[in-house]
Amino acid sequence: MYKNTNTNNTSNTNCVSIIVIGAGLIGPRHAEHVVNRPNTSLFAIVDHSAKGPSVAQRFQVPLYKDLNELFEYCDKYNVKYPDAAIIATPNHTHVPLGLHLASKGIHLLVEKPLSPNAQDSKTLIEFCKEKNVKLLIGHHRRFNPYIITCKENLPKLGQVVAVQGTWTLCKPDSYFEEKPWRSSQTLGGGALLINLIHDLDNLQYLFGPVEKVYAELLMKQRAQRGSDVNAAVDEGAVLTLRFANGICGTFLCSDNVVSPFSFESGTGENPTIPFNDEVAGFYRIFGSHGTLSVPDFKLYHQHNQPVRSWLNPVEEHQVKMAFEVQKEIEVEEQDDVVMFGIATPDNSPNTKEDNLFSHHSHVSSEKPKPFDLQVDHFVNLILGKETEVKCSGEDALRALLCIEAVGKSIETGLPQVVPSIDDIEMNMELFT
Ligand SMILES: NC(=O)c1ccc[n+]([C@@H]2O[C@H](COP(=O)([O-])OP(=O)(O)OC[C@H]3O[C@@H](n4cnc5c(N)ncnc54)[C@H](O)[C@@H]3O)[C@@H](O)[C@H]2O)c1
User: Fold this and answer.
1) Which end of the chain is more exposed for a tag (fewer CB within 10 A), N or C?
2) Is any ligand 1 atom within 6 A of the Cβ of residue 47?
3) Does 367 sit in the ligand 1 pocket, CB within 6 Å?
């Protein structure tokens, strides 16, 4: 443990102090965003592994090996507890850590999945309410410009009828060798719980709750190299989905095929996975009046045809994300300054597309960073500047319930109704 020099107990009402628990793959990424935002300070790193000291040193903050050590230190030296915590540890540890932190009144941003099982997740949700603690879950794609643009453009499709999605890529052996929990179903490993849950959250964010699911497990290729085929974690599945509002979908998830058709490859959101800007259609959303392909944002339509018909051509419109529109405006303005020595006003017809599909807002021309937006939202919730949680415990529980239904469908060979979150009991054993 390094000494915590943060002995100033007067709280700055506009700055939120945050600990990051977990110095593995994703924890340091959170820490990086915490140190770079204007209203946050990184209080400490908490991790017992050999990686802890180098991560704490990199961010020049104290390291505690566990929460007990942190709280003991604060109590002994009269240091104010951190305001908030980001839990970036293996899935099965999220709820015990969350309960401990919430019991001290510390607000929580918990990495997805909320936990590997629904009862434990429900317990943490209810406990946070009781303790008046904010709970945000790290389904950060809700802050991603691709998902935001997709949601904004759904009305242009008329009645959405169906969706088709793909998340396919190849995790190397080292991913599993480095961290044994990723190969253990009971500790929350497997492509369904680690990865598919992201896409199911995206789809529920776009189309509302999934009501029924049927799934077929993909063949396990990694297990064939190991000894116990049945004990190995899943490598993905194929799903059919029915949403409560009648929309139907299919989805293919595999973490063991070579393919660029994944959210990460197609959007470049994960710095460790190469961005492929030619990927088209990892989601395709079909509506009565058009089809939207994501992440390429081709909008297929027949708005200029007398009737919607297979006898008429389908036209293509390029939807742009808000930051791309803003970038174009800035480039045009710059060109005008160079050519005429004057800036073109923003509302000039020359600087705005005025067709049916354009949308404009005054936004930055930089590609937004979802982890920045997520931590800003977390801070705003804590400071009371925002009240509606963008990914609540209930939202995350809904995604988890879909994953559990996928698991049951694979087990039974039958379609499964996804239970309502109201039907989930708490796990009171967590308090004994
Ligand atoms: N949002 C995303 O895109 C994204 C990406 C990757 C991982 N994740 C999620 O983040 C979480 C962490 O994944 P990871 O791949 O970084 O894991 P990891 O195994 O690489 O790192 C976890 C770290 O937590 C530490 N740890 C474990 N238990 C602890 C405890 N009780 N107290 C303190 N430290 C403890 C470990 O020592 C390890 O360093 C998982 O829930 C995963 O699903 C999310």
Assistant:
1) C
2) yes
3) no
Domains annotated for the chain, with CATH where assigned, are: 16-141+426-431 (3.40.50.720)
Q: Is 235 in the pocket of ligand 1 (CB under 6 A)?
A: no
Which ligand 1 atom sits nearest the alpha carbon of residue 49? 37
To test the pocket of ligand 1, the residue of 20, 26, 29, 375 to mutate (highest count of ligand atoms within 8 Å of its CB) is 26
Beta bridge partners, 168, equal 254
Chain center to CA of 161: 25
Judge contact between 172 and 374, C-beta under 8 A: no
Would you call the peptide bond into 306 cis, given omega within 30 degrees of 0 as the criterion? no
Q: What is the pLDDT along the chain (432 residues), one digit of tens a residue?
A: 444 444 444 456 789 999 999 999 999 999 999 999 999 999 999 999 999 999 999 999 999 999 999 999 999 999 999 999 999 999 999 999 999 999 999 999 999 999 999 999 999 999 999 999 999 999 999 999 999 999 999 999 999 999 999 999 999 999 998 988 898 888 889 999 999 999 999 999 999 999 999 999 999 988 755 556 556 899 999 999 999 999 999 999 999 999 999 999 999 999 899 999 999 999 999 999 999 999 999 999 999 999 999 999 999 999 999 999 998 888 887 777 766 665 444 444 343 333 444 444 456 888 889 999 999 999 999 999 999 999 999 999 999 999 999 999 999 999 999 999 999 999 999 998
- Who contacts 401 (Cβ-Cβ below 8 Å, separation ≥6)? 118, 418, 419, 421, 424
> Which residues does residue 119 pair with via DSSP β-bridges, in sequence order?
none
Neighbours of 208 (CB within 10 A): 14
CA distance linking residue 278 with residue 95, whole number of Å: 39
Q: Identity (one letter) of the amino acid at 225?
A: R
